[in-house]
Amino acid sequence: METPAPKSERLLSLDALRGFDLFWIVGGHGILVALFKLTEWGWLGAIDAQLKHVDWNGFQAYDLIFPLFLFMAGVSTPYSLTRRLTEGARSEVIRKVIQRGLILVLLGIIYNNGLQWKGLENMRFGSVLGRIGLAGMFAQLIFAFNFEAPKRLWYWLAGILLGYWAVMSFGHAPGFAAGDLTMEGNFASYVDRLLLPGKLHKGIHDPEGLLAVLPAIGNALLGILAGLWLRRSAEEASGDRKAAGLALAGLALLAIGGLWSFVFPLNKNLWTSSFVLWTCGWGSLLLSFFYWTIDVRGWLRGFGAFFAVIGMNSVLIYMAGKFINFDFTARALFGGVANALPAGWGALLLAIGVLAVEWLFLWFLKEKKVFLKV
Q1: With 50 as the cut, is the pLDDT of residue 4 above it?
Q2: 3-class DSSP state for residue 22?
Q3: How many whole angstroms separate alpha carbon 339 and alpha carbon 350?
Q4: Rg of the chain in Å (alpha carbons)
Q5: How far from chain centre, in Å, is Cα 248?
């Protein structure tokens, strides 16, 4: 028998999955590394090996963190925009969507460069938050203009992913063959070298460049489609059916993305169309699991509540990691005990301490209802 979902339209599972996603970059990876060094357990080493970005073509678990966050931003869109769109306030929604997107771009620039001006040539404008802001903004605008005919979102998705594939298959940097997908020769990096001001993250290429914003819209659109599925009434689809639908969709996306990767390789740096489908496939499977176990069955609500503390203030903790030294605070609190322990145990205590300080910081803000909303 299903446990009734909470009366609030906000999904605990969505906040929990967002928090689980960020967990690996705000402290989870550090704990894993310390555990592996202490125990030398092979299975921990195998997980640790997955928590590194692939240099170019290919995919590892760490490459999922960024696109999964964008997918979840899409999932939350029908929950946050539907009421105002239903009331006919589309112009207000559009204004807020554009405002949010531009604020995230600005926060991304601040994250990369701090608040110091070192000349245009030394500024990096591409950023994780900028990619989330722009791709999410365009996806939400597409949703707003097609609110009354959501099936059109599939046409937009197909057009964007196929269009990007065509551009990358026929375009190239000067002196390279059409469809060259090396860092030097691909068309996206060439566009960034031409149009993106300031410095590129890798000199000749920026993984958060301009042209690759286009396929990233696909991650948000697939998230919106998942959110529309989850928002269906209990009469239209039970919680079990919704979870099963997400799981089946995830498997289908993995199959299509995997097949496409034979001609358009999985590549996070270029954010290839196959990468969009592949990452959304994993995102849909994870969302299915979190939704079914937390919101439908209620088995892991405590687990979900722990991660939701991180997920409910995701932008804040991401920005705070750049400007607040949580490691310093953890050492001040736990350094004495850590120094008295054997080296491996001390390193593990400090890694756990950093995460504990961050989590308690976010818990305090949640209790005080302080959230960084953009």
Answers
A1: no
A2: helix
A3: 10
A4: 21
A5: 21
pLDDT one-digit tens code per residue, 205-233: 999 999 999 999 999 999 999 999 999 98
- Report the interhelical angle of 128-145 vs 65-86 (nearest 10°): 30
Residue pair 24/51 in contact (Cβ under 8 Å)? The answer is: yes
Across 331-356, average pLDDT: 91
Tokens 């979102």 belong to: 153
pLDDT at 36: 86
Cβ atoms 186, 193 nearer than 8 A: no
d(CA 104, CA 118): 21
For the chain, the straight-line distance linking the first and the last C-alpha, in angstroms and rounded, comes to 39
DSSP codes of every residue in 287-302: HHHHIIIIIIS-TTHH
Model confidence, pTM: 0.92
* CA 231 to the chain's CA centroid: 21
Yes or no: say if 199 and 124 are a contact pair by the CB < 8 Å rule: yes
Q: Break the chain into its structural domains and give their ranges.
A: 12-367
* Residue 362 near residue 309 (C-beta atoms within 8 A): yes
Which pLDDT tens digit goes with each residue over 184-209? 999 999 999 999 988 898 989 999 99
**Cα–Cα distance, 123 to 115 (Å, whole number):** 11
Beta bridge partners of 124: 198
Contact 273, 245 (CB under 8 A): no
User: Cα(221)–Cα(216) distance, rounded to whole angstroms?
Assistant: 9
Residue found under tokens 């270029």: 270
Q: Which one-letter amino acid corresponds to residue 230? A: L
pLDDT for position 9: 66
Please determine, for residue 175, whether its predicted confidence score (pLDDT) is greater than 80.
yes
Torsion of CA 44, 46, 49, 51, to 10 degrees: -60
Amino acid at 90: R
Which residues face 57 on adjacent strands?
267
pLDDT of residue 323: 85
Question: 55 near 4, Cβ under 8 Å?
Answer: no
Amino acid at 67: P
Give the HSE-up count for residue 79: Cα atoms under 13 Å, Cβ half-sphere. Answer: 18
